[in-house]
Amino acid sequence: MPSQHHAQTHPIHLARQHFFERGAVQDGLISPLIERSWQRCYDDGLLPEACGRDARLSQVEFRDVRDRSSALLESARPQLDSLYAQIQNTHCAVLMADNQGTILHGVGDADFVPQARRVELMPGGVWSETARGTNAIGTAAREAKPVVVHAGEHYLDQNGFLTCAAVPIFDPKGRVLGVLDISSDAHHPQHHTLALVNLAVSMIENQLLEHECQNAHLLFFHPDAHLLGGLYEGIVAYDDDGRILGCNRWARHHLDIQPGHDADHQLTDFFDTSDRDPARFRELRSVAGDTFHARHREQARPSQTVPAKPTRSPSTSALADLSLGDPMVDKCIQQAGRVLGRDVPILLQGETGVGKEVWAQALHRSSPKSGAPFVVVNCAAIPETLIEAELFGYRGGAFTGADKKGAPGRLLEAHGGTLFLDEIGDMPLALQTRLLRVLQERQVVPVGGGPARKVDFDLISATNSDLDSAVRNGAFRRDLYYRINGLRLNLPPLRERLDFNALVNKILEEEAATGLTDAVKHLFSQHPWPGNLRQLRSVIHTAALLAEPGEPIDLEHLPAGFVEESHQNDDGQGSLAEAEADAIRQALAGQNGNMSAAARQLGIDRSTLYRKLKQMNGKEPHT
Ligand SMILES: Nc1ncnc2c1ncn2[C@@H]1O[C@H](COP(=O)(O)OP(=O)(O)OP(=O)(O)O)[C@@H](O)[C@H]1O
């Protein structure tokens, strides 16, 4: 096969010439591993002047792939960040791929990333050997070995500008789970990169082992007592019967186990002892005759009565997870934490889309009632005539159209758990009286009569209207207001949150988006966000689908009307309420008056849009 590379003296050029023109390479010009890989690519029919095949995933495929690798991404994240911090500003990028060579995560220097993107060396790019010929990621995955691929060792001509060092990441059973890589421009070769990547991978693998074998015994060992406790110690996880559940790469190295061959073994297959629990000894001998120094650790085991550590229970973390650094939010979390489980009704107050329902769920999950039902009733979404039956239930045939068997009602469904009354300000006055009675007497009588049933639930209510003024003008019962307002949490609007950037990053991650261009970052920081977190999520969700995999969200990906909404704010034209009203009018005009489509575009609920329109029309003269 002819190659673009003609007679040249550099060993790699010579090797390419030999390989592509004569079909064999003179000994010593390139490593046997690279030659093996070239041969596979050649046999597979790949041409060196090609661009790669099936080499890029769609956004949807990419999202699926990332979801499947979420455990790996989670275990690896701290190491990815710290690895990049060590090599930053050296014209390179840190990349992590799954075992099929699809790049899941990438972070790199501004002077290298554009070059890398030209060949799709970025998240969403597929770098398997089949797709792109010999390359560090694909070849490391294929060979299950650390690999450096420099310049012309890349099979495809177009990748000859790269130098890359990649190390496979093994799961505790010794299967390749992914690949960690540092790539840079071949003009800036990095000398210690492979060692750095190896270290980071060791740490990721240990993290995976401890995470996946949470209830196991752990045996740590090393031939040198001074290196016990260091990064190169072997770790074996095993159960009560001495059966090996998994081990790290150094255990495989010290015990000479081939990756993938450590399952279905007993400790006694490798250590020379008849004791099933050899970890009781400080010194061990392997069956091959090597001596190791050892230590032992028992992981937390559910069956044992280990004194409870004052750790954060998984439940409280639901609430704590809402903290991203905003002082007002943190204060709410702290106050809520104090009253949870103490029969104090909580009232969540905040603009539409600030996350009141998300908070209600987190409060429920953090409470002692987290295992019981969480029942949501949106008082604005149910027609007035049906709220009563919905809440209190009804006897069979109690009213026209009612189910013959009757229904227990949402209050009874919440028995033992949490009732979340959303938009409580929209509850009709007559029903407020009935609800108050239930809260006082803790029993429910269904519509149409029947025996009273006892109910017990935690109550969380939410409103985006000003309940104080509703109480003053008689639209909301004062006694009910006191009853539901044991603790009021005022959730700040998005434009006032000091953790705005952290929130954006969290949503970008959840939506598998790559990032934002500087122009979009600037626009976001200026935007009034009338739809708050709901609008932010909906804008990022759509824009992430419109951007190519690995491409940051740019102005062109933002929904129509969004940029204009921001500019109105820039011009300083009028108040926020006016900006919001303008946005609503524009959305309705743009969607030919279709309420559902306009609400979707604005990132708010249809019922919220109705209410806002009512408010706008009440204030404004007809035009
Ligand atoms: N802490 C958060 N982190 C990320 N996204 C969030 C958060 N809180 C809310 N969101 C997003 O905003 C959307 C709206 O949240 P939610 O329904 O809880 O708001 P709300 O205040 O109850 O709105 P409304 O008053 O219109 O009923 C959620 O579906 C979620 O996508």
From TrEMBL:
Keyword annotations of the record: ATP-binding, DNA-binding, Nucleotide-binding, Transcription, Transcription regulation
Disordered: annotated span: 295-317
SUPFAM superfamilies: GAF domain-like, Homeodomain-like, P-loop containing nucleoside triphosphate hydrolases, PYP-like sensor domain (PAS domain)
Domain Sigma-54 factor interaction residues, every copy: 322-545
GO molecular function (one): sequence-specific DNA binding
GO biological process, one term: regulation of DNA-templated transcription
Biased composition (Polar residues): 301-317
SMART domains xref list: AAA
Record Gene3D superfamilies: 1.10.8.60, 3.30.450.40, Homeodomain-like (1.10.10.60), P-loop containing nucleotide triphosphate hydrolases (3.40.50.300)
InterPro entries reported for this sequence: AAA+_ATPase (IPR003593), AAA_lid_NorR (IPR058031), GAF (IPR003018), GAF-like_dom_sf (IPR029016), Homeodomain-like_sf (IPR009057), HTH_Fis (IPR002197), P-loop_NTPase (IPR027417), PAS-like_dom_sf (IPR035965)
Entry protein name: Sigma-54-dependent Fis family transcriptional regulator
Species per Swiss-Prot/TrEMBL record: Saccharospirillum salsuginis
